[in-house]
Design brief:
Elements (H helix, E strand, L loop, with lengths): L31 H9 L7 H10 L6 E10 L2 E9 L9 E6 L6 H13 L9 E5 L4 H6 L21 H10 L6 E9 L3 H14 L13 E5 L5 H11 L13 E2 L2 E2 L5 E4 L15 E7 L8 H21 L1 H7 L1
Parallel strand pairs: 3-4, 3-5, 5-10, 6-9
Antiparallel strand pairs: 1-2, 2-4, 6-10, 7-8
Helix pairs in contact: 3-8, 7-8
Length: 327
Amino acid sequence: MLKFDTNLCEANPAMTTQAFYSIGTPGRPWSEAEVATWRSRQIVRRSYAADVSSRIDALRSRFDVVEYGRVDYAPDSYPLFAVRSRHWRDELPCVLVTGGVHGYETSGVHGALQFLERHAADYGGRINLVAVPCVSPWAYERIHRWNADALDPNRSFRDGSPAQESRALMGLVAPFRDRVLVHVDLHETTDTDESEFRPALAARDGVAYEPGEVPDGFYLVDDSAHPQPEFQQAIIAAVAKVTHIAPADAQGEIIGSPMVAPGVIEYALTQLGLCAGITTAPYKTTTEVYPDSPRATPEQCNAAQAAAVCAAIDFALAHPAKASIER
């Protein structure tokens, strides 16, 4: 598994606090100067063109591929691609699959691509599919959570968003956002969440870093405003055949939220500006895979993401009446 090689924190991640983060002054939010310093330290570590765009190009014989925007951070510019059903039919339900909102979460990107390559054809003539395998290509190349402006796209899905990535995706989805039946947003929770990204967030915002616990295994984030427990459990059951499900911690929580069912927590998706909240889909979820587990391989992580998408679509297609009632 490709690891994040941070050069911003002290050698012992367990001892990382805001005071040890090498950018900024404890208790003071970053200014543009600190953001510029942080940006200057981000190094290209892999290729969006080679890893992602080339695989999307290979799908053009089976799907429509749309360039729905560009992300521009001079001198870098990245095309943004959506893969759509070739034979779009207005009477069919829409399914939205997104990956790579956080560029460092590798299986979100490659799991979406694996679903397209191996499974999407099984749903031909049954759904209108829109898949965006990599929402944040700048961050994908640098294996980072944020975009080049030190913004988290997955807290920026709201009107007037300051994040290019979030604005572009919302623009793509706007014409059909109220017709989406299922939205699956593919993510990971990694060891670097605690060793790098949460300490960086605390430093950026001028607050104290409080260490958390990284769960070992797959879990889901449901929408607290419109929970769908049966839908979430159908996904958990399918993924459990591929990789292990995260248990609750000693407090009965996963990443600080109560576990409401095996492998499931809830967030206020729209209120928090999360990607999974950008449509009115009755069936929505955020997946979380743990790629640093000694019990999971990169292949399992990708397969778990693809299995989650398939299970989500299968459940929704089997329960359309329930979805229409709850819209």
